[in-house]
Structures are given as structure tokens and as C-alpha cells.
Design a protein that fits this description.
about 200 residues, mainly alpha, 5 strands, about 45% helix, 3-stranded mixed beta sheet
């Protein structure tokens, strides 16, 4: 048998053997190779990288106090306190920012509280205004009216009335000094609260 006949005889068998070997190798390695290729391609893609790290770039924050819409918000990494305040509807009119750092960067899971301004009791302020609008005549005021002035109790009020009944009407407000226990300093203090007339 010459060489050409031998080649023609074994060539198909060799080709078939090579094909079978290639199929076996492919079946064995195709899954790992495919996974590695996908992972490699994903790492190369900036868009995929942003999607995979989205959770790391978002913070969950609880904001409370003097904001219009207190609650829990999600905000991007790198934002500051002023940004979460804006997201919460802005500040209320009585918000106190003296102790709030608006430029501070936000950290995940934090609670931010915006304090309220402290006000003086309105009752005392309104009462003082009422006194100034309604003058108190020291020559005809009753014990009840005198006692509306802070610093004058029932005992002092009664002393003023007794003096008035005994010595006659006061010629001026400073004559209240003639009443036992009343000094000019006290009179000036009372005049800060009420308009005393005679």
C-alpha cells in the first residue's frame, strides 16, 4: 500500500478524532471561561460599575425637628446637611441654626435634628403691653388693680390705699415713696410695666 492510500485511509479517522477531542475540551471548559469573560467585561464597563456600587453611593438619613417635612430620606454620597434640609422641604420659620453646621458632610444612618428657637412666655409680654395701653391711676386704683403689677402684693396695695385715705390724693407718682416699704427704685421698676398716673 503506497503512502497516498494510507493517508486517504487514516485521514478521516484523524479528523474525526480531532473534532471529538475539541468538543470534549470545549464542553469541559466553556462554563468557567464564559463566567470569567463576563466578569472581565463587566469590570471594564463604567456603567455597570456604577450600577453595582449604587447602594454604596446612597445614604439613608433621618432628619427631624424644625423642617417642613421631617422623616427618612435617601441622599447621594458627598451631600451636606443643607442638601438634606432642602430635600425635607426646607426650614420652618422658628428654626434655630446657631448650633447646626450646614456644611457638614452626611454619613449613612445618621439622625439630624434641627432645633427650634426658644421664645419667652407670651403672657408676660402681652400683659405688659396691656398695662401700657391702660394707665393705672394711683389715686383711684383698687387693691385688685394694684396687684396686676409685678412686685405689688395685697399687703403693699393695701398700704397705698390706706395712705391715700389718710393723707389725701398723691400729687405725683414719686410720692408713693411716702408709703412705708416703697422706694424710688421700686417705683421705677413698676413704671417699666405700667403707666402710672395721678
Amino acid at each position: 500500500m503506497d503512502r497516498k492510500k494510507i493517508i486517504k485511509t487514516i485521514a478521516p479517522a484523524l479528523a474525526l478524532g480531532c473534532i471529538c477531542l475539541c468538543i470534549l475540551i470545549y464542553e469541559k471548559w466553556k462554563q468557567p471561561l464564559t463566567d470569567k469573560w463576563i466578569q472581565h467585561e463587566l469590570k471594564k464597563s463604567p456603567l455597570t460599575e456604577n450600577v453595582l456600587t449604587k447602594k454604596k453611593l446612597t445614604h439613608t438619613i433621618h432628619i427631624a425637628g424644625a423642617v417642613n417635612k421631617p422623616g427618612v430620606y435617601h441622599i447621594n454620597h458627598g451631600k451636606r446637611v443643607m442638601d438634606i434640609i432642602e430635600q425635607a422641604g426646607g426650614l420652618k420659620t422658628n428654626a434655630n441654626l446657631d448650633k447646626v453646621n450646614l456644611a457638614a458632610k452626611i454619613k449613612d444612618g445618621k439622625r439630624i435634628f434641627i432645633p427650634f428657637k426658644k421664645h419667652r412666655p407670651l403672657l408676660a409680654k402681652n400683659t405688659s403691653m396691656t398695662y401700657k395701653m391702660s394707665p393705672i391711676n394711683i389715686n383711684n386704683a383698687t387693691q385688685k388693680i394694684f396687684c396686676t403689677i409685678n412686685g405689688i402684693g395685697p399687703k403693699t396695695a393695701q398700704s397705698i390705699i390706706r395712705y391715700r385715705q389718710k393723707h389725701g390724693l398723691f400729687k405725683n407718682v414719686d410720692e408713693l415713696q411716702k408709703v412705708k416699704g416703697i422706694s424710688l427704685k421700686k417705683i421705677r421698676k413698676w413704671q417699666q410695666q405700667a403707666q402710672l398716673i395721678h
